[in-house]
Amino acid sequence: MTAQDDGYTFDLLDGVTRSHVRYTNRYGIEIAADLYRSADFDETSAHRAVVVGPPHGGVKEQGPGVYAQELARRGFVALGFDPSYNGESGGQPRHVTSPEIFAEDFSAGVDFLGSLSYVDRQRIGAIGICGSGGFALSAAQVDPRIKAVATAAMYDISRVSRHGWQDSTSGEERRQTLVDLAKQRWADVDAGEPALQPTFPAEMPAEGPDPITREFYEYYVTDRGHHPRSIGGFTLTSTPAHINFGGLRHLEDIAPRPILLITGDQAHSRYFSETVHEEAPGPKELVVVPGARHIDFYDRTDLIPFDTLEAFFRDNL
Questions:
Q1: DSSP-derived secondary structure for 207-251
Q2: What is the rounded CA–CA span in Å between residue 198 and residue 61?
Q3: What digits encode the pLDDT tens for the residues 67-83?
Q4: Contact 237, 185 (CB under 8 A)
Q5: Mean of the per-residue pLDDT values of the chain
Q6: Residue 1 has pLDDT above 50, yes or no
Q7: Closest by alpha carbon to 133, among 263, 1, 221, 264?
């Protein structure tokens, strides 16, 4: 897939329509989203619906649209959105990441879908890709209107912020990080604006960086998934909120609603899905796709198990 003239990283499927919509979350932040439906959509019936969140740092013109249009082709009403402070959505300062607000953005998507006369409020689900997988689960913990939740190549951003990669960060290291970030807040005060983490380079580097970062560059920096509003960096002082939030601590509150966890046997993020599958006490299914890496679940329609997603939501919505 390469970037299209319309600003999307994928072609719109034949038989699917896309409409740009806007609505507000409970913080009053305007959310920019795309609504996908089949071209022969019947507005006189009440339909199943799904809200789709992007990878952490991604936008609706990337992965969410890939999922949303395929589900729309299969008869669902599907909504792909830009998280608050990012993409075309509102919120200042730009490029904040917040576990609280990013979870709320899923619930705001449910609000919008439920306001449509042709959506059945009792049959709304959620899909989170990469970092949005954790936020979708977090939203489902407190919003029982989300009747079923699926994740693809899930990252639990708050868990890795607090505990490190594969839970390798010590308490002493975490506390030092908080000291460093407190100094950064003073630096932001003095500068009059928040500093950002490093953003994606203009071109794919010939050598380095580490294999995980290089995999992200393969998607976000090259024509495969590059989008000018998907820059890779968040405000440095966003991190304490994730550290304080911790991991997904209330998975039991999703039960008896079902969870579908999709990952790849080559995905560096696989352990996040396996951890949730182990910890969640309610109905759950773990699907490991052979030959799939983490970023392949952003756009590789030959590897994303759409038949499994369709069956999951048809059975549970």
A1: S-S-HHHHHHHHHHTSTTT--TT--S--BGGGHHHHHHH-S---G
A2: 22
A3: 999 999 999 999 999 99
A4: yes
A5: 96
A6: no
A7: 263
Q: Has residue 2 got a pLDDT over 80?
A: no
Token pair for 87: 């993409």
Map 256-286 to HEC letters: CCCEEEEEECCCCCHHHHHHHHHHCCCCEEE
Amino acid identity of 283? P
Residue 37 CA to residue 122 CA, distance in Å, equals 19
Kindly list the structural domains of the chain, giving each domain's residue range(s) and its CATH number in brackets, ordered by start: 16-156+248-316 (3.40.50.1820)
Strands laid side by side in the 149-152 sheet: 16-24, 30-38, 77-81, 47-53, 119-129, 149-152, 259-264, 284-289
- 154 phi/psi in degrees, rounded to 5: -60, 140
Query: Do 119 and 230 touch, CB atoms closer than 8 A?
Result: no
Residue closest to 298 by CA, chosen among 122, 78, 131, 99: 131
22 residue type, one letter: R
Q: Are 272 and 288 in contact (CB under 8 A)?
A: no
10: nearest Cα among 200, 18, 128, 203: 18
* C-alpha–C-alpha distance, residues 293 and 267, integer Å: 4
